[in-house]
């Protein structure tokens, strides 16, 4: 695929599905970029410009050097937890907690009112826009795979630039809406926005814990019927475990299989375009990007007794296989 075709592919992916996925993951950074700014358009534009430049640069690196520069699942999990903390700080800032205000804003420069002033100029939107590179959504990972497969800096930059530009309309709308909401809902009504950010912080924290494989055991929900249907053994003794990656999640989401035997996980897709195409096994620190339609096999070796958990690459749609 040439650079123009890769750009169109990236743009289409971002426009059709990437905006919602990425905006959910990166909302905290976008909120921080517009918080305290006089007008919403300029900080949103700067935020998106910084995001475009950094993602284009990453695409060029991926095209040149392959996937070695991509952060693994555990690294992304830590970043998601950091994003949850950031969302909580923004919520506390809305409620005028002094500690949060001090952490998010620069020290005062001797102003007459003695209050901390928000960073001036384009500094904060640039930093936060660039930081989106560290919090990729699942569809960003799909675009990154295309950049790797292009095997050229120009192709990699084209697909990542197209993806970011495809998500830009929704990001711009959300950014302007958040900024105007923060301006209008002053005083007590700002608590409504703060509560929303707290809920998003909890959701992001949960995603990070899932992606890192740090969620405590909650008991298996596998049924004998599902296990009998989707787990089989061939004549050579190899155990085959089949999981479907659908737009709405992984099916079945819980299975039981035999431990101590050679096992192959078969991941199937059929016209799947959502975040579940980026499949992650946290305990193995491994990502697998699935085709829109097809079958992908992952050799699991001979798993020991216990649970093998899986999620999409941004920590959503959890599932597990219990080996016993």
Automatic annotation (TrEMBL):
Taxonomy, superkingdom: Bacteria
Keywords linked to the UniProt accession: Membrane, Transmembrane, Transmembrane helix
One of the Pfam families matching this protein, by short name: DsbD_2
Domain Urease accessory protein UreH-like transmembrane: 12-203
Transmembrane feature ranges: 46-65, 77-95, 126-146, 158-179, 185-206
Keyword Transmembrane among UniProt keywords: yes
Descriptive protein name: Sulfite exporter TauE/SafE family protein
Organism: Actinomadura gamaensis
Classification lineage: Bacteria, Bacillati, Actinomycetota, Actinomycetes, Streptosporangiales
